[in-house]
Amino acid sequence: MHIEIRPLQPSDRAVWEELFDAYAAFYKTTTTPAGKQATWEWIFSAEDFWADLALQNGKVVGLCQYQLMHRSLSGAKVVYLSDLYVRPDLRGGGIGRAMIDHVIGFAKSNGFTNVRWLTQEFNYAGRRLYDSYRPKSDFILYSVPVEA
Predict the structure, then answer these.
(1) By C-alpha distance, which of 28, 13, 23 is closest to 63?
(2) If I label 4, which of 12, 61, 87, 119 is the partner at 20 to 30 A Cα–Cα?
(3) CB-based burial, 82-96: b 16+ in 10 Å, e otherwise
(4) How confident is the model over 57-92, as pLDDT tens digits?
């Protein structure tokens, strides 16, 4: 099974939206037109945000998006894998691992010393994959909405 991972192209908008919406649904949230538009613009205009598609036999089967994150204690930047999604019927076949390895390769080739990501407690299948890289950390995420 050959998995190709390539950068998102402007012509990929429809399949990107499909995968991005499915990713949001998996995490029991939704996207908004404004949020999708902002993310789409980051992909093609931000110097520190990337999106790639995974293809198997020429068919798009997954999406990963990643960005740089400042780490004040080390004075270094690390790669934050913000979004990783594989079509449900293809999970467990190595696509997620290929995308994570791709992002790790990106970090290594660009001199970044760490890749990190979050997932929700209930993502047991994903966590089995993630645990094969390293055990989960002891950190707990707090997320506080701020109204304007």
Answers:
(1) 23
(2) 119
(3) bbbbbbeebbeebbb
(4) 999 999 999 999 999 999 999 999 999 999 999 999
pTM for this one? 0.94
Number of domains observed in the structure of the chain: 1
Task: Say how many C-beta atoms besides its own lie within 10 A of residue 54's C-beta.
Answer: 26
Residue identified by tokens 């989960």 is 136
146 is a domain residue: no
Token pair listed for 18: 């499909």
Residue 83 lies in a domain: yes
Checking 9-18 for CB contacts under 8 A at 24+ apart, the result is 10/44, 12/53, 12/60, 13/40, 15/53, 15/60, 16/40, 16/51, 16/53, 16/63
In contact, 113 and 78? CB cutoff 8 Å: yes
Q: What is the pLDDT of residues 8-38, one digit of tens each?
A: 999 999 999 999 999 999 999 999 999 999 9
The answer to the question of residue 12 being in a domain is: yes
Q: What domain range is 51 assigned to?
A: 3-131
